[in-house]
Amino acid sequence: MTGTGVAIDYSAWDHIDISDDDDVTNPYVDTPSLFRMRHRARLEKMAGFQQRGEDLESNLAECGRLLEEAERRLRAMEERKTEVEEANLTSVRAEVKKLKKDKRLFEKMREQHKREEKRLPWNVDTISKDGFSRSIVNVKPNEETQEEGVEKYGEEIKHFGMLRRYDDSQKYLSDNPHLVCEETANRLVVICIECAIDEKHALMEQVAHQAIVMHSILDLGRALKADPRGCFRQFFSSMKNADQLNREAFQRELDLLKERVRSCARMRMEDAREELEEEEKQKRLGPGGLDPVEVYESLPKDMQRSFDEKNIEMLHEAMAKLDLEEGKYHLARCIDSGLWVPETKENEGYGEDEEED
Fold this sequence. Notes:
By secondary structure, the protein is mainly alpha-helical. It has helices spanning 32-79, 83-119, 130-133, 146-162, 166-175, 182-197, 201-224, 232-240, 244-284, 292-298, 301-308, 312-320, 324-337, 344-356.
C-alpha cells in the first residue's frame, strides 16, 4: 500500500527479461558475443511465435470461409430438396459438422496462443514502445520509428530514475508528462536489474524508488479513473504530507521490489554464466567433437601428469600400464578432443606396439 492508499500489483513485472543490448560491464556475465547469441535466439523465438499466431489466424479465416460456403450449399439443397439431391444432403451435412468442429478447435488454439503471448517475458524488443507512441509530444503520426522513440525517451527515463527529491521529480514530470506511462515504470525496473547485475547496488536502490513512484502514480490514476498525467501532482503532495504509517507502507513496497530485482538479477547471472560456459565449451571442442577439459578429467592420474608435463615418454609409459582396450579408448578420446595431436608415424607405431603387446 503506497502513500496514496493504492496497492501495487507486481504481477506485471514477473516476466521481465533484461536487455542484452545495453552496456553491461560485469566481465563474468555478459560479453559482446553472448549478447549477439542471446539476442539472435530471442528474435528467432519471437518470430516463430508470431508466425504461429499468423498461421492460426489464417487457418481460422479459411475454415470460416469454407464453413460459410458449405452452409450456403446446404441451405440451397434443402430449399429445392429432391430425390436426386437427397444422397448429397448427408455428405454436405457431414462437411458442415466437421468444419464447425474445426473452427471451434482453431478458435480454442487462438485463445491459447493469446494467453501464452500475455505470459511472454518483456525485453528490449517488446518493452517501452506503444506507450510512447501515444504520448502528447507534438509530432506527426509515424514520424519516427519505435526504436527511435525508445532511444529518445530512454535517456529521459534514466534521468528521472536518478532524481532523489520529490520536488525535482514533480518538476521533471511537469516538463515531460509523456513519461507518465507503464512503459516508463517497466523500463525503470529493467534498469534496476541491470544495475544489480553490475553490482551497482546504491544506484539500483535509487532507481527502484523511482519505479515505485511511477507505478504508484499509475495506480492512483486507475483508482481515480483519470489520466495519470493529471495525477502525479496529487501523488507528490500526498507523499510530502504523508504520515508515518503511509511512509512505512511505501517503504515496504520499495523493499519488496528491491528483493524481486535482486532475485531476478541472480537468476539472470546464473543463466548468463551457463550460456557463456556452453559457448566456451563449443569453442574448445576438438576434431572429434569432445571437450578436452572433460576428457582430461576422465583420464587416469598418470596420463594427466604426462599432459601436465607435456612428456610424450611418460604418456607411453602410462598407456603401457593399461590393458589394450582401455588404452585405445583413452587414446581415441585424447585425439578426438585435441588433447593430443600425434604425428602419423608415431600414431601408427603406437598402434603396432599395442597389437604386439
